[in-house]
Amino acid sequence: MKSVKIKLLHPAAKLPMKNIETDACYDVFATSKESLGDDRIKYGLGFSLELPKFTQLDVRPRSSIYKTGLVLSNSIGTGDEDYRGEYMMIFYHIIKTLPSYNVGDRIGQIQLRNRENINFIESDKLSDTQRGSGGFGHTGN
Q: Which pTM value belongs to this model?
């Protein structure tokens, strides 16, 4: 099991948690809520982290986000190993008839991932495949 240092920054901050041991992600909770105007809402998660070397943190919406009128502004956020600030999530409130999250709500999920450095090798030719350059639903036709 990997250990990660976490600094709680808010009196109501909670440690990220799993409901079931086999969950892929840890739930995170809103400790602050701020309207940024133009239908954007910024939520503070109330913690900062010291990630291990070659580790990144992905921040994503929960699957139950469909019950809200919210869409995460950057789809999946990424925390780098040297970031020490508060983790936050910014949502667009696009369906006004549905509620937004409140302080104290589970608003997202985080997942730590190992990453490796890649050596890109420039080439004038790539190998041929059956799919080739077909994309954007090409295999579903």
A: 0.84
